[in-house]
Amino acid sequence: MPTLNLTAKSNNKLLIHKHMKPIISLDNSIDIILTPQFYTFIREELDVKFSYQAKQIATSLFDDYLENNHEYQYHVYKCDNFWCFFAYNIKVIELFLESVGIEKHRVSKIYFAQQLIDKLENPILLDDNSVLQSIDNVVTLVPLQIIDTNVEYNSLDINSFKLKGGVTMGSSLNSYVSLKETILLSSIFCILGGISIFEGNRIKRSIANDNAKLTELLDENPRYTSSLARESILTKYAPIDKKERAKRQAIKDISKFLSNKSQLKTLSIDKNSIQAKITTENRSISKQIKEHSRNKKFKFSGASLDVKVEKKL
Amino acid sequence: MNIMTLQRYKNEIILFLTALFAISAYYYKFSANNYVDENKAFIQKQISEIVEIESYKKQWKSKGIANKVKLFKTIVPASKIKLFSKKSSKVTVSYINLTTNELNKITNKLLSMPVQIIKLQIKESSKNKFTMEFTCKW
Smallest CA–CA separation between B137 and chain A, in Å? Predict the structure, then answer.
């Protein structure tokens, strides 16, 4: 029965030193532990709280120890009451790794031999010429010649313990795009994507109310679903509405033509027209009625005191 | 493509995926915009048509009209009603000897009632006396 492993699987570790034997082939990714040949180490007591603050002063800290014509990367972590600073040149490390047959993309994390300080109280034999030993709490590469011949060497299985706080072998350095650019561009893309989705939802919601209203109306009147049915009903009622409103408006207009000096004689409405005969007391009133009729788009006739007004419906 | 290659091009893959997300999201917004552009006018037209139909029906096919037209039977003294005939959804009324006020009163009621005026005839029968006849349907 397979067991469930909830912990991250750690890679095999490899101690990197200048006289190491070339690696024939690597199938999996590995973590490397750099010997002091590949880094410069400083331990300082500083009044800073966070590692990013310590890292900010790393460049100036190494000013006197490093060559100016190289570009260095820095790593820093808290070690007891001190800050442990490492300066390394990733290009040099990469070139060396390639020279011993390690493709740089196979390297997952970089650790520093200084991190093995607890395990190096007794020296370990690195190759035929040098040993790795802790001297004054600093992991140091010591020539074999100066080591006491009676000294007892440790055997160190570097895969048997876990190291913390390694440097990611810059996926950024292996990639065409740097980590900083990746974070910046990805953030921009994510923000743009988020805004677009938010806008899209807002646009869709703008029609949701109309959609809900239409659904409600159609639920109440399922036969209006067909546009033909709707058009047919509208065709039936729209002319009625128009004609009836016209009739009522025409009657109101005619009533406004009347005064105490004029009298309605007849008024009739049939299918297509409205007609009225008005008799007046004098010509000026009849003229006034004709004028009003013209304004209200009535046809009018009558030469004497009687005026006939008519309008097509 | 093995896991190492994926790890090697992690940044490019992240960028590709986030760019793909941004493009997809933009396409979603674009589609939403198109959908709304195409459908909003159509949906609103349907709503306005249905509302218009409802309003017409309420106006010209109101169920209470049959009762309301009975008012024309009582609006003036019975002696002045020559004819009151209500059949199905149609009413024909004929009045005689209406005063100007009565004529105005009936006319105002008729105009405010949601019925189709099929025929209306007003005549002055004598000085300030009128006959009125109308046929309405609903």
Answer: 11
Is A244's CB within 8 Å of B119's CB? no
Band (pLDDT 50/70/90 cuts) for residue A194 is: very high
Element spanning A72, H or E: none
Report CA A166 to chain centroid distance, whole Å.
30
Q: What is the pLDDT of residues A208-236, one digit of tens each?
A: 888 888 888 888 888 888 888 888 888 88
**Residue A192 at interface with chain B, using a CB cutoff of 8 Å:** yes
Q: Which fold has domain A229-312?
A: Gyrase A; domain 2 (3.30.1360)
Asked if A269 has any chain B CB less than 8 Å from its own CB, the reply is: yes
Contact A34, A112 (CB under 8 A): yes
Q: In a 3-state reduction of DSSP, which class is residue A95?
A: helix
Q: Are strands A30-34 and A107-112 parallel, antiparallel or unpaired?
A: parallel
Return the C-alpha torsion angle B77, B78, B80, B86, nearest 10.
Answer: 120
pLDDT in tens, B1-25: 555 566 667 888 899 999 999 999 9
Contacts of A272 in chain B (CB under 8 A): none
B22 to A196: CB separation less than 8 angstroms, yes or no: yes
What's the confidence (pLDDT) of residue A5?
A: 36
Question: Domain B65-137: what homologous superfamily?
Answer: Ribosomal protein S6/Translation elongation factor EF1B (3.30.70.60)
Report the gap between the CA of B20 and the closest CA in chain A (Å).
9
Q: In chain B, where are the structural domains located?
A: 3-60, 65-137
Of A171-175, B60-64, B117-121, highest mean pLDDT: B117-121
What is the residue extent of each domain of chain A? Answer: 12-181, 229-312
Contacts with A171 from chain B: Cβ below 8 Å: 7-8, 10-11
Task: Return the structure tokens found at A164.
Answer: 């913390």
Asked if A229 reaches chain B (Cβ–Cβ under 8 Å), the answer is no
How distant is the Cα of A134 from the closest Cα of chain B, in angstroms? 35
- Residue among A246, A294, A255 nearest A274 (CA): A246
What is the per-residue pLDDT across A161-170, written as a single tens digit (0 to 9) for each?
788 778 876 5
Task: State whether ipTM is beyond 0.90.
Answer: no
Q: What's the pTM?
A: 0.49
Beta bridge partners of A78: A83
Q: How far apart are CA A108 and CA A91, in angstroms?
A: 16
Judged by a CB distance cut-off of 8 A, whether residue A281 touches chain B is no
